[in-house]
Amino acid sequence: MKFNYLIKKFFYLNITLKNAIVQRAFNVLSLSKFRGRRQQVFKSQAIARQSPPTRVHHFSLERDPPFPPSFLHPNSFRLKGLMGTVDAANKDVNVSLADKKPTVVFVLGGPGSGKGTQCANIVEHFHYTHLSAGDLLRAEIKSGSENGYDIHTCLQKLDITMIQNMIKEGKIVPSEVTIRLLQKAMLESGNDKFLIDGFPRNEENRAAFEAVTKIEPEFVLFFNCPEEEMERRLLSRNQGREDDNIETIRKRFMVFLQSSLPVIEYYKAKGKVREIDAAKPIEEVFEAVKVVFIRKDEQVTA
Ligand SMILES: Nc1ncnc2c1ncn2[C@@H]1O[C@H](COP(=O)(O)OP(=O)(O)O)[C@@H](O)[C@H]1O
Ligand SMILES: Nc1ccn([C@H]2C[C@H](O)[C@@H](COP(=O)(O)OP(=O)(O)O)O2)c(=O)n1
């Protein structure tokens, strides 16, 4: 009797143990399968986040390298190879732009130094076309946000959002975007005299513009203004700009010091900088600006 009981107990324990082992193995398998599937989902989500949506043109800087290495700035990682930079049409754009031998004046200075204000006066007196890189980028964000896509620049909503975020952060947008906008505006203007305001803002902007357009600026108008004065002006500019808040203003000042001043130094070494004291009242600043442009015209006619 007792022996029978022990045999039964042994079989019972054996089955329970086997069941437990099988169950455990099953659990482990299912869990790893689930984890695998979950990782797969995460992986495909990550790929989807990295992949650009299908776009009209797919170029690759690696395949078409018309730019110096400096063009491959860390800033441009997101757009590198996605929207590309050069195609047959773009080459035509560059050839026809360079053929026109346009007069280009770069207008530089810290945020709020009065570049836009003085450019409006120069346009009125000297018949230049004013192209503000910041205005072009803001217009692109606006039209891209409304239409979701811009056929001229091949920028899609994802890129537009990225540009918007960069501006909100006070960062400099990759040159390939800004240069495309400038080229398009230059061609559409029908003029051959341009004030390019707020560009080049860093070494990458400068080198890429020269490499792509083959245009050298006539001179660089540099509005020099103390930071406290620029800050005061920006805080009362009142144009509803997302980047005119104290936090972003400070970041823009930092970017100006670190990235834009070296560009001014570069042109200074070439004797191309015309420096203006921009802390004075608007009319006085313009008197100084006029002298620069009148001298330039006199040099041309002499
Ligand atoms: N010389 C000046 N004195 C006082 N305020 C100025 C002067 N120049 C421009 N402003 C004002 O400062 C703000 C910034 O000028 P803006 O031309 O937009 O600068 P930037 O284009 O360099 O950012 C504007 O509100 C403008 O009216
Ligand atoms: N060459 C340029 C010019 C402007 N931007 C972006 C980054 C700048 O902080 C904003 C605003 O530039 P904008 O010249 O309009 O204004 P401020 O001179 O900063 O007052 O645009 C750019 O990314 N690249």
Automatic annotation (TrEMBL):
Membrane spanning residue stretches: none
Encoding gene (name): LOC111293739
Positions with a binding annotation for CMP: 205
Main location class: cytoplasm
Family: Belongs to the adenylate kinase family. UMP-CMP kinase subfamily.
Protein purpose: Catalyzes the phosphorylation of pyrimidine nucleoside monophosphates at the expense of ATP. Plays an important role in de novo pyrimidine nucleotide biosynthesis. Has preference for UMP and CMP as phosphate acceptors.
Protein location: Cytoplasm; Nucleus
Keyword Transferase annotated: yes
Cofactor note: Binds 1 Mg(2+) ion per monomer.
Xref: Pfam families: ADK
Oligomeric and partner information: Monomer.
Residues the entry annotates as binding a ribonucleoside 5'-phosphate: 138, 171-173, 198-201, 241, 252
PROSITE patterns: ADENYLATE_KINASE
CDD domains tied to this protein: ADK
PANTHER family reported for this sequence: NUCLEOTIDE KINASE (PTHR23359)
EC number: 2.7.4.14
Protein name, as recorded: UMP-CMP kinase
Gene3D superfamilies: P-loop containing nucleotide triphosphate hydrolases
Domain comment quoted from the record: Consists of three domains, a large central CORE domain and two small peripheral domains, NMPbind and LID, which undergo movements during catalysis. The LID domain closes over the site of phosphoryl transfer upon ATP binding. Assembling and dissambling the active center during each catalytic cycle provides an effective means to prevent ATP hydrolysis.
GO molecular function, one term: nucleobase-containing compound kinase activity
UniProt: ATP binding residues: 112-117, 237, 280
Cellular compartments per GO CC: cytoplasm; nucleus
Record field: catalytic activity: CMP + ATP = CDP + ADP; dCMP + ATP = dCDP + ADP; UMP + ATP = UDP + ADP
Keywords, sorted A to Z: ATP-binding, Cytoplasm, Kinase, Nucleotide-binding, Nucleus, Pyrimidine biosynthesis, Transferase
Cofactors (names): Mg(2+)
Record-level GO BP terms: 'de novo' pyrimidine nucleobase biosynthetic process; nucleoside monophosphate metabolic process; pyrimidine nucleotide biosynthetic process
